[in-house]
Write a structure and sequence with these properties.
A hairpin with a 4-residue loop joins strand 3 and strand 4. Helix 5 crosses helix 6. This protein is α/β, with parallel strands linked by helices. The strands form two sheets. Strands 2-5-1-6-7 form a five-stranded parallel beta sheet, sandwiched between helices. A two-stranded antiparallel ribbon has the order 3-4. It is globular, with a radius of gyration of 17 Å. It contains six helices and seven strands.
Length: 222
């Protein structure tokens, strides 16, 4: 039987039924594979109209700011693994696992797409959240500080989509946020493609591969 979105909801909900401990679900995949679309839809459907017991914490909040990328000489390949604070991301995931009791809110950084900059303290994760969905390119990477990420995740799902569709989505997304068409194409086929090739190599480490058909509607983000 083909995997459906309802199957994903059942599997995600089961992660939180572990005796009260907060669970963390990771969603990985290449740029434009639909990670954000899947994460947002899971959170929306699982929370329903009741109290929010599922939170969404994207990896993108750990982008290094442009000023730091300029200092490091990495601005021209923004989005590569070494343009993120991987150690900080792993530390937040560990904190989310360990600090799930009491009344305290855990704050996580967000990412402003128009500015293309991280925003500190933009996401509030209440202690009542029993499941955290996090998504990003490099959740299954085993090099450097990225290797600290996977041990903090109960499961990691890998979003897979047709390569031409993924490229089309990425070009459209870059244009939506201000790039001219030629520059968008050059970035997608250059920097983004190198990152996508690296992420594709991690597919075999995922607990589940999610085809685009399992989404209720294919999205262009993530």
């Amino acid at each position: 039987m083909p995997l459906t979105f309802d199957d994903l909801l059942i599997r995600a909900r089961a992660l939180a039924q572990n005796g009260g401990r907060r669970a963390i679900l990771g969603i990985a995949g290449s740029p434009g594979a639909g990670k954000t679309t899947l994460a947002e839809r899971l959170v929306q459907e699982l929370n329903g109209g009741g109290p929010d017991w599922v939170a969404h914490v994207p990896m993108d909040g750990f982008h290094l700011a442009d000023v730091e990328l300029e200092r490091l000489g990495r601005r021209d390949r923004k989005g590569a693994p070494d343009t993120f604070d991987a150690a900080g991301y792993a530390a937040l995931l560990r904190r989310l696992r360990e600090e799930s009791d009491g009344d305290e809110i855990t704050y996580a950084p967000g990412f402003e797409r128009v500015l293309e900059q991280p925003l500190a303290g933009a996401i509030a994760v209440p202690s009542a959240a029993r499941l955290v969905v996090t998504e990003g390119n490099y959740l299954l990477l085993e090099t450097g500080a990225w290797a600290r990420v996977r041990p903090q995740l109960d499961e990691v799902w890998f979003c897979e989509v047709d390569e031409q569709e993924r490229i089309r989505r990425l070009i459209a997304r870059h244009e939506e946020f201000g790039k001219e068409h030629e520059k968008a194409v050059a970035w997608v086929l250059g920097t983004d493609q190198r990152n996508a090739d690296l992420v594709a190599e991690t597919r075999g480490r995922a607990d589940l591969v999610v085809p685009v058909a399992a989404l209720p509607a294919a999205g262009a983000r993530g």
